[in-house]
Amino acid sequence: LPAKLINGGIAGLIGVSCVFPIDLAKTRLQNQQNGSRLYTSMSDCLIKTIRSEGYFGMYRGSAVNLTLVTPEKAIKLAANDFFRQYLSKDGQKLTLVKEMLAGCGAGTCQVIVTTPMEMLKIQLQDAGRIEAQRKLMPETVVPGTVPTKSPTAMQLTRELLQEKGIAGLYKGLGATLLRDVPFSIIYFPLFANLNTLGKRGAEGPAPFYVSFLAGCLAGSTAAVAVNPVDVIKTRIQSMNRGSTEETYSGVTDCIR
């Protein structure tokens, strides 16, 4: 177990460091509404972010992710291994249904850390878009709802705990489950089966490039499948700071 937790933590840190700018662009694109669109594409979003906030503006909110991604990925990967071992009989190969059940268990366990991490990360990532919107499209901003100064992660945490208690950090829990459980159900079995195809012999591990390509294909497939729910989760978890009204009452309201 310690080795699995360490491996998961290291993998999570490397993954966040590599793709965080793309994740920031995703959040800002997902939060755009009709009539207040600042960005036309991922590349347009990243270029405008660098121009207005500098290179490190693309890593806004990364401290939260780098802090919490280690326990998140460690729980996710260790839970998947645990459920796979639990569901296997005498070391026999798991059926596809059991592989999906193991992924389901992993996705369910990880939301304990994922939900508050995403809640804080989204506020910090979207702050730059809101600032740019206030400067370039002031007619789309409701007076009094947009803070003039970007909050820090600690300020957001204190604000959420004071106003709503621990439930404030777990806003969007249902949407997070609807995203992460199907993602893990698709990702883990698909990765395991693709990785097995590249193994050298029955017992030998697959070469690194095979595992890398299997991860890319499995991750891309799962991400595309759950993207609509990810949009819903992002919009639900985006705080309407300065206003007492919630933008959406729940998942079905956001979908509508």
TrEMBL record:
GO terms for cellular component: mitochondrial inner membrane. One of its GO terms (biological process) is malate-aspartate shuttle. It catalyses: L-glutamate(in) + H(+)(in) = L-glutamate(out) + H(+)(out). It comes from the Eukaryota. It holds the Pfam family Mito_carr. The keyword Nucleotide-binding does not apply. Its main location: mitochondrion. Keywords: Membrane, Mitochondrion, Mitochondrion inner membrane, Phosphoprotein, Repeat, Symport, Transmembrane, Transmembrane helix, Transport. It is found in: Mitochondrion inner membrane. One of its GO terms (molecular function) is symporter activity. The keyword RNA-binding does not apply. It is a multi-pass membrane protein. Belongs to the mitochondrial carrier (TC 2.A.29) family. Mitochondrial glutamate/H(+) symporter. Responsible for the transport of glutamate from the cytosol into the mitochondrial matrix with the concomitant import of a proton. Plays a role in the control of glucose-stimulated insulin secretion. Responsible for the transport of glutamate from the cytosol into the mitochondrial matrix with the concomitant import of a proton (symport system). This is Mitochondrial glutamate carrier 1. It comes from Salvelinus namaycush (Lake trout).
